Amino acid sequence: MKPIWTYPLTWCAVVVAASVLAVAAPRETGVMGRLPNVVGQTIDQRPAVVKHGGERILALITFNRGQRKDAESWISGLQLQHDQSIAWIRMPVVNDNGDPARRVVAEGRLMAHYASPQERANLLPVFVDRDTFAQSAGLLDTDSAYVLVINRNGDVFARVAGKFDEDKAQSLRETLRASHL
Question: Residue 58 is part of which domain span?
Fold first, then answer.
């Protein structure tokens, strides 16, 4: 025969374990990562406003000039210049060492490369430590360009690396659509 206090003690242990798991369990936003908090300004020094679309945004992340072609492959593959139903931004991540003069030079290079107002409208450069940015966003490294589905708070819902691929694109479209359900 078991002592009478065993059943209430077991019940309490189960409740405590469930409570701990509910608090400690990963959430959708924590699993994929989160973009670091940075002040969002377009290259023209205006506050970043993402046009069109709802809660989720497609972010094309590049860490160096050589990755621009990968980002361009996603822009043309998803026809982002013509598809107003997908909210998107291009986010070149520029290493920031805190020197304002170097930042001005980097901004000048970006403005020279993205000369048209249409290109600049979706350009949101981020001046931070690249490795810290990648780690915070849940990216494996800075050797690849990434396409992320994020919300306006920077929570990452999906990510793919490299050049445009139709299977990857379909996965991103499904994640973007999930916010409209």
Answer: 28-178
* Global pTM exceeds 0.85: no
Q: Can you read off the two tokens belonging to residue 99?
A: 């020197």
CB of 122 closer than 8 Å to CB of 54: no
CA distances from 123 to 11, 49, 107, 120 (A): 56, 11, 11, 5
Distance CA 36, CA 4 (A): 53
Residues pairing with 155 in the sheet: 34
Question: Residue 6 falls within a domain, yes or no?
Answer: no
Whether 3 is in a domain gets the answer: no
Total number of residues shown for the chain: 181
CA distances from 115 to 45, 104, 108, 118, 148 (A): 15, 16, 10, 9, 25
Tell me: the pLDDT tens digits for 68-112?
Answer: 999 999 999 999 988 888 999 999 999 888 888 888 898 889 889
**Is 152 within the bounds of a domain?**
yes
